[in-house]
Predict the structure.
Amino acid sequence: MTTVQQRSRRALIRAAALAPLAVAPLSACSRRSFHGLDVTGVDWGRDFHLRDPSGRERTLADFRGKVVLLFFGFTQCPDICPTALARAAEVLRLLDDDGSRLQVIFVTIDPERDTPALLRAYTQAFHPSFLGLYGTPQETAAAASEFKVVYMKVPSGGTYTMDHTTLSYVFDLSGRLRLAVEHAASAHEVADDVGTLLQA
Amino acid sequence: MKTRIRSILVGLALAAAPALSALAQTTVQNAWIRGTVPQQTATGMFCRITSTAGGKLVSASSPVAGMVEIHEMKMVDNMMRMRPIAGIDLPAGKAVDLDPSGYHVMLMELKQQLKPGDMVPVTLVVEGKDGKRESLEVKAQVKPLATTGHDAMSHDAMKR
């Protein structure tokens, strides 16, 4: 069991690691405080160009007017990906009526195995509104790179597993990247942050 | 909830008096498997294992999976890494948790969808300190894909 102190220290180290990337511009907007790491104003995480399970091209612009929670993972992941999506479903539940203004998106970093049909079935198992997105290996690499998501195939027996970044990203109603959320964040913390962004 | 366990000793019969025999008595509790959608080919099994005399979980198998491995998931600096490992140490008398924050039994090449409520047979092989292997046949309950780790485990298993 990690102590509060250890967690705070680790959070600081992680924040420090991401600090060069987080440029918070001085603006007229009031600075709100978030549980997640505030990455407002960074020059990355601007958009994605991927397909939904019906083959339609999707970009962030499609979700203007909603807060977007974006996670990169793969379906052969027994721990992190299901718990991240289960947390997202819990966030939706905590938001109550406001939940209809949250769009959860799961991007597969394993398009070879995560076919559109599998993606759709997988995301819907968590909540019918969740959207799975995929791309060609190049499109996947481009999307991951834009979001500084590291992922790699690791051979395992006759098959492979994937190492990957476990951060979730949260966008505001205008489609701007605002937060990087760690896996350890609770559903309450995430719901709090989404609630704050919904009031913008 | 406890799963039913049948412990079968594999190897030489112990000739020593029962009081002196170091029977590796291993108990498995709360064995559960994360459910899958039809097209999914892999998932994880979790449980709590306690070995009275101490040992190591060295392998597992199941009729529902073409390949089964023991895996450790580690998260370091927001990166997840999952690797097959040779075994999980079971210190004598200490409950060891396989849960969504670390160890799990990885069921791969699934032959069927695993639906919530299904009871899936899994054989766990524990090697005792004396090198003798014990097979435990466990029935793991399939829980919904969207189960959070703390739905299924006791509170000490929660890592926060």
